[in-house]
Amino acid sequence: MTVNKSSVLSVEYFVSYLKLVASARNSGLEEAKEFMKEFFFKGEKNYYGQQTDENFCRAYHKLTNLDKS
Fold first, then answer.
1. What is the rounded CA–CA span in Å between residue 63 and residue 14?
2. How many degrees, rounded to 5, is the angle at CA 6 between CA 35 and CA 61?
3. Is 42 in contact with 27 (CB distance < 8 Å)?
4. How far, in Å, CA of 9 to CA of 3, rounded?
5. What is the pLDDT at residue 3?
6. What pLDDT digit, counting tens, does each position of 9-30 carry?
7. What is the three-class DSSP state of 34?
8. Maximum CA extent, the chain
9. 8, 19, 31, 32: most buried, per Cβ within 10 A?
10. Which residue has the higher pLDDT, 13 or 4?
């Protein structure tokens, strides 16, 4: 998938993406998060900008809080 570096990706985008990665890799959310940090963000926290990184973090926390419910 091609992502435009100038656009801000939403929390909902990352919720779906994290679920997809976890499912495809048959792993948990923590492993999906680490995989995305390395490959999607290319090891650079703000590769797609600060707002996109914040939305990624919000999505991860949203999903981890759902797991605790």
1. 10
2. 40
3. no
4. 9
5. 73
6. 999 999 999 999 999 999 999 9
7. helix
8. 35
9. 32
10. 13
Q: Can you give the pTM of this predicted structure? A: 0.88
Task: Give the integer Cα–Cα distance in Å for 63 and 6.
Answer: 26
DSSP of 18-44: HHHHHHHTT--HHHHHHHHHHHTSTT-
Q: Residue 4 is encoded by which pair of tokens?
A: 């435009």
Beta-carbon count within 10 A of 34 CB = 12
Q: Calculate the alpha carbon distances from 37 to 31, 56, 63 in Å.
A: 10, 10, 16
Q: Which tokens hold the place of 33?
A: 């998060």
Q: Each residue of 34-50: pLDDT tens digit?
A: 999 999 999 999 999 99
